[in-house]
Amino acid sequence: MEQPRLLDRLRDHYDRILASPRFRQLATRFPLTRPVVRRRVRALFDLCAGFVYSQVLLACVRLRLFEILTEGPQDTATLAGRLALSPDATLRLLNAAASLKLVARRRGGRWGLGALGAAMVDNPAVTAMVEHHAMVYGDLADPVALLRRDRGGNGLSGYWPYAETDRPSALRPDQVAAYTTLMAASQPIIAAEILGAYPLRGHKRLLDVGGGDGSFLRAAAAAAPGLQLMLFDLPAVAERARARFAEAGLAHRAQCFGGDFGADALPEGADLISLVRVVHDHDDDRVLLLLRAARRALAPGGTLLLAEPMSGTPGAEPIAEAYFGFYLLAMGTGRARTPTELEALLRAAGFGALKLLPTSTPLLARVMVAKPA
Ligand SMILES: C[S@@+](CC[C@H](N)C(=O)[O-])C[C@H]1O[C@@H](n2cnc3c(N)ncnc32)[C@H](O)[C@@H]1O
Fewer CB within 10 A of the terminal residue: the chain, N end or C end? Predict the structure, then answer.
């Protein structure tokens, strides 16, 4: 067996010291180590209390507190009336929300929006996520059982039914409606990240595979007026996209194709194929089927663009590893991958010339482009 390197041995030693209650007591008393101890205690408490913080946010969203406060600062009694809560319950909620920077105290005993509450205003993406998390938390109520049992059979795997079925093409409109609406709510911020990193210059026809209701393609159409649009998704989803394109007056520029990318050929003719938040939903064997199908469909010299949150993103580790790790476990398939893991899959499917492009908010999405090898 390989000998632990010196750095690893030092780390083990340090961890053993930190784990000792006697050391923690000493470190709390010693002025130089006290601030470090306090920061760690706070970080650990935040981990323990995370669910409670989320539920304070959920209460604010359900009571429409942020919208109410956009009208201007209001006092507790007025807010109690508008929230239909007792004055005591209102004050409890406002104090909790203020501690989380969702609301802020203003002069004269009034309350206004806090920095994070202000970011929730007109933010359907996060608002929809906050509501959706009721289901996520239900599935994670017993995390050890979730880790031990076979995948599937959870609220989330029912919500994303393509994760559980062998015949995703047979999914009915009512089975795809909720997740398609949820994805569309957050797509504008993802599209802004992608189009900021890859402005679509020089492309004639874009095929968005797993394109949902076409929200990404509509953003692409606005950014590149001459671009022709093609969308491939499960038949019931492609039908929704067709209706959205017609509503947006884009029917003449957009073609929608229904099918299963694991079984059916992708439509040909695009010089750019995008996979936006699609690959992380699937296990490696299915991703390879998808990437090979994209490789066959892509015009010679074309480009494949893959965009999603990735593992190994500095500063976003808990989002990829803890959040997506457990979310996708409950959903039943997929995982967040590092750029290196994605690169290996892309190469195995016949792509080369890979580039990871910088995005302005990498924790939301990173963008990788590739060309047929
Ligand atoms: C997480 S959603 C992403 C939607 C959209 N790209 C976005 O970012 O908002 C994944 C999409 O892949 C589609 N999808 C899943 N499995 C599929 C399959 N086997 N064939 C075709 N589309 C599939 C789903 O219907 C869904 O629209």
Answer: N
211 lines ligand 1 (CB under 6 A): yes
| Ligand 1 neighbourhood includes 59 CB (under 6 angstroms) | no
What pLDDT, in 10s, does the model give residues 315-342?
999 999 999 999 999 999 999 999 999 9
Share of the chain above pLDDT 70, in %: 99
The per-residue pLDDT of the chain, averaged, comes to: 95
Q: Is the CB of 257 under 6 A from ligand 1?
A: no
Is the distance from the beta carbon of residue 281 to the nearest atom of ligand 1 less than 6 Å?
yes
Mutational test site, ligand 1, from 281, 283, 287, 289, max ligand atoms within 8 Å of CB: 281
3-state secondary structure labels for all residues of the chain: CCCCCHHHHHHHHHHHHHCCHHHHHHHHHCCCCHHHHHHHHHHHHHHHHHHHHHHHHHHHHHCCHHHHHCCCCEEHHHHHHHHCCCHHHHHHHHHHHHHCCCEEEEHHHEEEECHHHHHHCCCHHHHHHHHHHHHHHHHCCCHHHHHHCCCCCCHHHHHCHHHCCCCHHHCCHHHHHHHHHHHHHHHHHHHHHHHHHCCCCCCCEEEEECCCCCHHHHHHHHHCCCCEEEEEECHHHHHHHHHHHHHCCCCCCEEEEECCCCCCCCCCCCCEEEEECCHHHCCHHHHHHHHHHHHHHCCCCCEEEEEECCCCCCCCHHHHHHHHHHHHHHHCCCCCCCHHHHHHHHHHCCEEEEEEECCCCCCCCEEEEEEEC
Q: Is 305 in the pocket of ligand 1 (CB under 6 A)?
A: no
Is residue 209 scored above 50 in pLDDT?
A: yes
For ligand 1, what atom is nearest to the CA of residue 186? 9
